[in-house]
Amino acid sequence: MLALSLAVFIGILSSIFPAFILTNSKYDQLLKGNIRLGANANFLKNGMVVVQFAISIVMVISAVVVTKQLDYLQNMELGYSNSQKLIIDFHFDESLKRNEKTIKEKFKSLSGVVSASISSSIPGKSGRKSMTELPDKNRQTVELYADAYYVDYDFINQYDINVITGRGFEEERPSDFRKSMILNESAVKTLGYHNAEEVIGLPFLQAGRWKGEVIGVVKDFHFNSMHEKIAPLTMSIARSYLTFMILELNTNDLQNSVAQIENTWKEILPDLPLSYSFADETFDELYRSEQQFGNLTFYFALIAICLSLMGLLGLATLSSRDRIKEMGIRKVLGASPIQLMTMLSKKLLSLSLIGLVIGLPISIISANQWLSNFAYKFALNWWMIIPFLLAILLLTVLTIGSQVYKASIANPTE
User: For residues 244 and 87, what is the distance between their CA atoms, to the nearest angstrom?
Assistant: First the structure.
């Protein structure tokens, strides 16, 4: 916001500066080319061009970096299936938890529902944490404070979470209820193990109450924002903390599927309001502020470029008017329009390049600083920004050239 405010102020100032000089000059001075700026005015004029161009470079590169990072996040492999999942928050309703099997089967019988599961947490939303005692690599009991997912038997399969060793939860095994635990890869590494198979069969004590053994390890998946590295995670079967029902829908008729679910909900749970969202919306919500920042940066970059070009156009006009007499003499002596254009545009282009040299390192440093907020980010390479810099330089050349060309072909006697 500070950069934008500065760009707007300098852009407006540099746009009205030539008009102010021209309107406060006498007509006969304009015709004779006798407009002369003092040293302070010249310094201000040149400084505005440099600073304004530098700010434009910073804004454009910022917009490019934000856009590429958001694209990277949206296309990154999450480690689970996030598509066509409708999330119902039933707010720990006891009647639903007591009848979870019957209610799940009721929803699964609908033509628009592919599968159903229940859990305490869902990827993309902050979940519950719990303290679990486990043996580390040295067989010393350590306390692992980790995110804890309490799920049913269908959750892992529904989300296509990959079990890399051991097994998942099986309803046919009564001991899986509260007496079995699954860890993710990050939890295994935190305990000091290099091979996931080493943790299979380890005893655990969770929250000082529930004992059992580790039965499997799942591949790391992004259950939190990508601002953070994947943290240790434990998964177990429990009903106490269940609050989300996840329904996977088919894609044939999404609107009709949602309508079926709403009608069925009213039928089986008439006193509980239906509150739902889609899993992809939950994921997008994690980066809502970045998306808004990206949109603002894009529009700010456009404003900064437009103001820079307006300032350059005005200053090119002033520079041309200031050298009317000189151009007339050079024309009489045989100077070509190309030579006159080079003479008039050289200084402004030099100032623009100075702004580029100043703005480029600032933009790279600020971009890397912003990217440091993400544990997972794209690799920022210099060649990614070259096309945008060339586009800015081309617009600069065209803007300056359009004005100096008019001045170079004008009849000095008119």
Answer: 7
Pairing, β 233-237 against β 141-151: parallel
Tokens 């520079």 correspond to what residue?
Answer: 319
CA 88 to chain centre: 27
Judge whether 58 and 359 are in contact, CB under 8 Å: yes
Q: Give CA separation, 60 vs 288, 309, 351, in Å.
A: 21, 14, 18
Query: 172: which residues sit within 8 A by CB, 6+ positions away?
Result: none
Q: How many CA atoms lie within 13 A of 413 on its CB side?
A: 2
The one-character DSSP state at 335 is -
Q: Distances from the Cα of 98 to the Cαs of 110, 153, 239, in angstroms?
A: 21, 15, 9
Q: What sections of 78-133 are H helices per DSSP?
A: 94-98, 100-108
- Kindly state the tokens that stand for 270: 């008439």
Sign of the alpha-carbon torsion through 341, 347, 351, 356: positive
Q: How far apart are the first and last CA of the chain?
A: 47
Residue 89 pairs in a beta bridge with 244
Look up residue 382 and give its DSSP letter.
G
What the block records as the tokens of 182 is 């699954």
User: What is the mean pLDDT for each group of 10 consecutive residues in the chain (414 residues)?
Assistant: 50 49 44 47 70 85 90 90 92 89 93 93 88 94 95 95 96 91 97 95 94 96 91 92 93 84 92 89 81 85 80 71 66 68 76 88 90 90 84 82 69 57
293-to-53, 224, 339, 363, 369 alpha-carbon distances in Å: 22, 20, 45, 16, 15
The predicted pLDDT at position 332 comes to 62
Name the residue among 64, 139, 127 with its Cα closest to residue 367.
64
Question: Who contacts 281 (Cβ-Cβ below 8 Å, separation ≥6)?
Answer: none
Q: Is 60 helix (H, G, I), strand (E, B) or coil?
A: helix
Q: Which pair of structure tokens corresponds to residue 337?
A: 């329009």
What pLDDT, on a 0 to 100 scale, did the predictor assign at position 313?
Answer: 76
Pairing state between β 210-218 and 180-184: parallel
pTM greater than the 0.90 cutoff: no
Question: What ranges in 76-117 are assigned the alpha helix state H?
Answer: 94-98, 100-108
Q: Which amino acid belongs to residue 42?
A: N
**Which one, of 286, 247, 295, 315, lies nearest residue 110 by Cα?**
247
The C-alpha angle 150, 152, 154, rounded to 5 degrees, equals 130
Cα angle 134, 168, 277 (rounded to 5 degrees) comes to 100
* φ/ψ of residue 247, rounded to 5: -115, 120
